[in-house]
Design goal:
UDP-galactose 4-epimerase, domain 1; 2 domains; seven-stranded parallel β-sheet; two-stranded parallel sheet; binds nicotinamide-adenine-dinucleotide; binds uridine-5'-diphosphate-glucose; UDP-glucose 4-epimerase activity
Amino acid sequence: MTKTVLVTGGAGYVGSHCCKAFASAGWAVITVDNLSRGWRDSVRWGPLIECDIRDGTRVRGALEMYKPDLVAHFAALAYVGESVTDPALYYANNTAGTLALLESMRAAGCDRILFSSTCASYGVPQHVPIDEGHPQLPINPYGWTKMIIERMLEHYGRAYGMASVSLRYFNAAGCDPDGEIGECHEPETHAIPLMIEAARSPDRPFTVFGTDFPTLDGSAIRDYIHVKDLAQAHLLAGEMLIRQGGVHVFNLGTGVGTSVLELVEAVARIAGAAPAVLYGSRREGDPPKLVASFEKAARELGWHPTNSQIDFIVETALRWRDHPSAARRSSH
Ligand SMILES: NC(=O)c1ccc[n+]([C@@H]2O[C@H](COP(=O)([O-])OP(=O)(O)OC[C@H]3O[C@@H](n4cnc5c(N)ncnc54)[C@H](O)[C@@H]3O)[C@@H](O)[C@H]2O)c1
Ligand SMILES: O=c1ccn([C@@H]2O[C@H](COP(=O)(O)OP(=O)(O)O[C@H]3O[C@H](CO)[C@@H](O)[C@H](O)[C@H]3O)[C@@H](O)[C@H]2O)c(=O)[nH]1
C-alpha cells in the first residue's frame, strides 16, 4: 500500500530534496509551507498546502484529509545571525510553531514525526568527532530552539506515545544530481553557493571568516553532507519509525572535515575559475571544527553517506546554478 508523508517546509532546500526522495521511493507526498523562505516551483512531487504550521485549523484539516503515515518536519527559520538579533521570531516560528504542529498531529491522531535538528545544538564541541552522547550546549538562539524541540519530542514520546526521530544534520550541501532542484536561500549566507557566486562574478568576492582558528590552515572546519544523502537518511528513518516507533536521535554527517580554504580550492578546481577571496575576521559564534560521528545511524538505520565527496558536492551545486529556476531566483 502507498505510504504518505506530510512534509512541512517542503518548498525549502533540504525539504524539497526529501520530497523527491520519498516520491522516488513510491510515497505520496504532501507539502505544507508558508513560502516565507521557500519556492513554489520547488514543490514538484505532490500538492502544496500554502499555510503556516501554526495555523492549527488548516494543518489539522490536512492531516485528517491525507492521513499521513508520517510527518517530516523541516519548516523553520535557520539563520544563526538573525536568531541572535531577533530571537522572538525564532522562538515563535520554530519552537511555538513546532508545538502547534505537534498539537495538530495529536488532534488528528497522527503520531510519527521526523525532525530536522542540527549540530548547532552541540555548541562548541568538547571533542570531535561528535557523537550523539556529546553534551548539547547551543551558543545561539537558533540552536536553542532546535534543542528545546528535541526535548519536547522526548516528552511527547513519553507522555503521549508520539514516535520521533531527530536528525542532527551537519552542513547540508550540494544539490539534486539531476539538476531539478537546488539550494536557494534569500539572502544566501552559506559558504558553497557564495564561493560559486564569487567564481562566477569576480565583483562578488568570497570572504573567509577567520584565518586564526587552531586548524592546519587556520580556517574553520565543517562536515559537509550531500543533501541527497540526507534525503536517504530520512527515508530510512521514516521506515524505521513505522516499523518500531520510539524516540530516536541521529547525527547525519560524514566523519570527514573540510576547511573553508580547502572548499575554496575545490570550487576553483571544479568551476575552472578561482573565486576572488578576501580574508576577514571570525563570524561570531562559529566553532573551529564540527565533525560528526555517524556510527549510530550506520548501525541502527543502515545509513552511509555515498554522495558526499567534496568534489561531487561542488559539482552538483554548480550544475544547479545553471538551471533556469536558479538563474530566475538570483536575478530577484
Ligand atoms: N541547511 C543546513 O545546512 C541545515 C543544517 C542543519 C539543520 N537544518 C534544518 O533543516 C531544515 C531545512 O533547512 P533548509 O536549509 O532547507 O531551510 P529553507 O529555509 O530552505 O527551508 C525551510 C522551509 O520552511 C518554510 N517555513 C519556515 N517557517 C515556516 C512556517 N512557520 N510555516 C510553514 N512553513 C515554514 C520556509 O518557507 C522554507 O520553505 C530547517 O529546519 C533547518 O533548521 C538545515
Ligand atoms: O561567507 C562566508 C560564509 C561561511 N563561511 C564559513 O564557512 C563555514 C560554513 O558556513 P555556512 O555555510 O554558513 O554554514 P554554518 O554556519 O556552519 O551553518 C549551517 O550548518 C549548521 C550546522 O553546522 C546548520 O545548523 C545551519 O542551519 C546551517 O546554515 C563556516 O566555517 C563559516 O564561517 C565563510 O568563511 N564565509
